[in-house]
What we know:
By secondary structure, the protein is an alpha/beta fold. It has 13 helices and 15 strands.
Amino acid sequence: MVHPALSGLPPTGRSPDVPAPPAPAANQEEVRRQNLGAVLRHVHVHGPTSRAELTARLGLNRSTIRALAADLAAAGLVTEKAPTTTRRAGRPSLVVSPRSTRVYARAMTIEPDRLRAARVGLGGRVLDLREVEHPRGSCPADAVRPLSWLIRDMERTAGPDAICVGAAVAVTDTTHGRDGRIRIAGPDDALRVAFDAEFPSGPPVVAGDMADIAALAEQVRGVAAGVDDLVYLHGGPGVSAGIIIGGRLVRGHGGHSGKVGHMVVNPHGHPCRCGSRGCWETEIGDAALLRHAGRDQESPDTVAEVLRAAADGEPAARAAVEQVADWLGFGVANLVNVVNPDTVVFGGSLREVYLAGAETVHRRLDELALPASREQVQLRPAALGGTAALVGAAELAFAHLLADPLGGAAPA
């Protein structure tokens, strides 16, 4: 089952800020719960908003907005204050703001070579961020103990009234084992059980795939805000995708969809660590960029150095970027033909490859994609950068609170 926070917008494309029409049998308490969620989600996503603006945007009357905001303030989730400036005569409308420093989520990532943990306040503000190296080839459950140390260290500096209302971890979709072969290492029950053992009294940890969660972040707060149909491509040692169609994440059986890096594009190409040959990531992943540039070491620093050298005009580096960009456009054209998204977002190392080789990517897209798909699709570099997975994990962690603000609210 798709977790609510990974569902994005409803299938109808209706904005998540607008209260859903109640079912015929819904009672007044259910209607109130939905409206509370709509108000809280709006200020969580859009920031401080006056009561007058909430009335206009959510389609509720002024007295209802006043009562809902008062309930959320009494629960310690928002504040209501007079605006610092006003251009209108008469009594100014109070501004409703999320209590970012008080109400927060634990957001974590398990990446191929590092672990990160953050406290992210309601409203999407990163309050604190820590990271530590993580040995390649480790299983996700091995990351729980060091992540718990990072979390506890951060929470020692939180204010006395700060409260955690949710927790989530983004897990890289594949890892390379000690034998060099790729294995699926997505979220599993062992990971959740290990977190529950570390934090028995805290909120349960929700786990999700790295690319899926980064796609969610870009849809809520990034370059694809409000877009119903998008493909988020994440580059690094491997290549994966978060695919959102009709506002809902496509997860597939067992949550293992989006492995676009293992789409075979060149049957006579290079062997892939998955055991196949000519996978897309052998042509556009970090190793491919370094191979074309004549570099041996596969590391984020070396990839960044190649991209800098290409920007400075070094012939070998520039040729490497062009080669990778050409294959990037080839695969994107195929995805556009299959998925027909409104937007394709490039994240991870693919963000910089796209920025450096955008003309080549677009040329390939124009050559290979169907006119009906390519004419409307937008190609965009990710806006959130390295924080995308943490921001997305926080959105996942806040989902229960946003769906039922008073049921999951902290005492004021």
